[in-house]
Every structure is written in C-alpha cells, then in structure tokens.
Amino acid sequence: MFSDYISYLKEKGLANNTIISYTNDLNSFFNDIYARSDEYVTAVDIHKWVDQMLNSTDLKPLAISTINRRLNSLRSYYSWATNNNKLQHNPMREIKDLKSADEDYEKILWLTEEEFANLLQLIRKKPVNSRGVNTEEKYRRDRAIIYLLTYAGLRVNELSNLKLTDIDLELKRIRVVGKGMKVRTIPISHTLFAEIQDWLKFRLEMKKQKTHVAQSSYVFYSQRSSKFTVRGIQSMIESYSLPKKKLTPHMFRHTFCKWMLRATNNDIEKVRRLAGHSNIATTSRYLKDSYSDLAEAVNALPKF
Q: What would the pLDDT profile of 184-206 be if each residue is shown by its tens digit?
C-alpha cells in the first residue's frame, strides 16, 4: 500500500525532493510506533508519537515546524488511503498542528527604526530598470506610499482606493474607507504632513504632463493607469525588500501599530481606532514583545 501511495505522489507531479520528504516522514512514523503502513492506527498512537518527538531523551527535541511537517505528511497519506478505500479509519481526522507560544508574534513582522531608515536610503539609491520611467517621479511616489503605510497604518487596498478628496491638508486629516465600508479619520502627523504635501505638489506638475494623471481622482497612479492597483503596490514594495526580510505592504501597518503602542504608552483603544480594528483583541497582539526585546530584557538583569 505504501508503494501505491508513492506512485500516487509521482502521478500528481510532486517534486522528487518533496516525495523523498514524505517518504522519510512516513517511514519515521511507522518505525517509531512499530507498525506497518496498512495496519490500524489510532489518534492515540499519533499523540504518543508527537509526545515522543517533543520529549526525546536521547536526541535533540524536534522543532515545532518539523513536527507539523511530519503531521502534514501523515494527513496526506491517511486522506489518500481512506478516499481510495485502502483503510476505513483516518486517525488524522481530529489531529491538529502544534502551536508555538510565539506563533502570534511570528505572524506579525514589522520594521525597526534602523530598518526603516535603511529602506529610505534604498528607495533613494535603487536604480530604475524599466525604460521611460521618470526616476524622480518613482522615487517621490514610492517614498510617499511608504510614509502613508507606516505613519497612517493604511491597508494596501485602502491606499490604492485613497482619493485626493480624502486628504484634508487644512485640517490635517485623512478620511479612510476600511473593511465593511467603515469610515475612519486619521490625524496627519507633522512628519507625514510634509511627505504628503511634497508628493501632492509634485503630482500637480505631473498632472500637466500626463493625461492619465490629469484624469485621475486617486492620490497614487501607476506608469500607465490612473490608479495604482493593489498588486502594483505589492510588487513595488517587494522590490525594496531588505536583506533577510521580504517586505509586504501589511508589514508597514504592523509597524504603525507597534510604533503607535510605544508612542501612546500601550493605549490599545487609541491604536485600535487609528488602525480601524473592529475587535480590540486584534490590536492586543501587538503588545507581545519580539524575541530581541526579550533578549535585551534578560541581559539587563543585574550582573554580579
């Protein structure tokens, strides 16, 4: 039966390395519980196996990600076996992946102040590879987008849909239509005000030179379209990725929430309103310290 499953994986067109990984994971399981691939296995057997991997006495305990990968291999195998009437019982039906205590933090990536400063330098110096692109125009637009995402905490679709009439420079505020068509108003900080003002002045000049800019009601436009699409913004952001850190638009929203919590002395309600979170539990995730924060804390202990 095991060989039939491997043949199935090959027919699906899986990469050879993937098939080897599945094979190794399954062999480890059946060897560890002293069972054949076609024998009856229960959820209890799997729980014991997981416990064995977490509390190994002779080897280094496996990482959560490795254990979850092995569970996924079992999940695929038993799903195939039951769907094809090879086995009647699927022991993986109620088995869930393990969760790390730091899992919520790992899903939330943000920029440090040093990384943000380095990014601004990168935007200034990065060469433009596409022909016919105005280097200064691209630099000013991309910089303004980065500042709006970071200092206003906008979602990428909110930024894409942002219209000129949504920005009130006189009252220093931005009108944002968020999820569920909920409207929120974000005050414009002094730092962000200067960046927006600079971009809008430059945009007026471009309006005289390009028809699609003159016809656009949106704050940001692309090279050929009156509106900078979500995908276009995502691609632009990714192109500035830092060493060992792939950038995404949402990472700047995370940065806004983290920096705002620090600025407000962890006032969750203020940050919730500014970010447009419907549930304060979403905002509270940002209260978790990063691993580097924890490392700095333990190193700050008294030294004797």
A: 999 999 999 999 999 999 999 99
